[in-house]
Amino acid sequence: MAHFFHIGVNCYARAVPYDKIQPHIDQAKDWVRYSNNSWFIWTNESAEFWYRRLRPQLHPDDSIIVVEVIVTNAFGWMQQMAVDWLTRDRTIDRPGL
């Protein structure tokens, strides 16, 4: 069963290596990047799976966290496109924004 994860990457003293990370993020069922170092993904895989897939793409001094997101209890403000992505009907399996 698919579920949401937040992926956060912090690269010290350099830019996020999108060219190395994005091809892996593209393997999720669906995803949205809502800031320069943060993604929401929709996937059947585990947090550990995504950590192990992405960690080798980063410098040893960089950090990454993958956290499951339960959208039934949320509050805050963010870009409308990210809210639309999170709240979209996922009863049909289709790619995102």
Query: Could you report the average pLDDT, rounded to the nearest whole number?
Result: 89
State the CATH architecture.
2-Layer Sandwich
- The CATH topology turns out to be Alpha-Beta Plaits
Shape designation: globular
Radius of gyration, in Å, reads 13 Å
**Low-pLDDT segments:** none
How many structural units, i.e. domains? Answer: 1
Number of DSSP helical runs: 3
Counting DSSP E segments of at least 2 residues, the number of strands comes to 4
Q: In terms of structural class, how would the helical and strand content be classed?
A: alpha+beta
Q: What's the order of the H and E elements? A: EHEEHEH
In words, what does this structure look like?
- The protein is an alpha+beta fold and 97 residues long.
- The chain has 3 helices and 4 strands, in the order βαββαβα.
- A 4-stranded antiparallel sheet has the order 2-3-1-4, with helices on both faces.
- The longest helix is centred in the first third of the chain and has 8 residues, at 18-25.
Summary of the model, kept short:
Helix content is 25%, strand content 28%.
Note the main attributes of this structure.
97 residues, alpha+beta, Alpha-Beta Plaits, four-stranded antiparallel sheet, 3 helices, 28% strand, globular
